Amino acid sequence: MPVLPPKIRLFSVQHNGVFVFVSNDMEGADHVVEGHPSRDEDRNAFTPRRQPDGSFTFFHPSTRTFMFVSNDKRGNDFVIEAHGPDELRNRFQIRL
What we know:
Elements: E1 8-9, E2 11-12, E3 18-27, E4 30-36, E5 45-50, E6 56-60, E7 65-74, E8 77-83
Antiparallel strand pairs: 1-5, 2-3, 3-4, 4-8, 5-6, 6-7, 7-8
């Protein structure tokens, strides 16, 4: 199982080099997760937390929220958001 540093930035090489961040835009009570080219903003940083089952949650210190895959859809794809409660749908597996 990989060991992750205390803070990480998620970088998308597909979209001309954008960083994932938690936006101040809201979808109901949840923050929208987006991508932008700004490199060194605090809102780009996530704290990975290993869970007892070996999965990870990605805590966003700037908004005190956790990234999760919501039930909301845009077309056929699920939307990524961030919210306060730490729950099962916040967990991700890292697959190499």
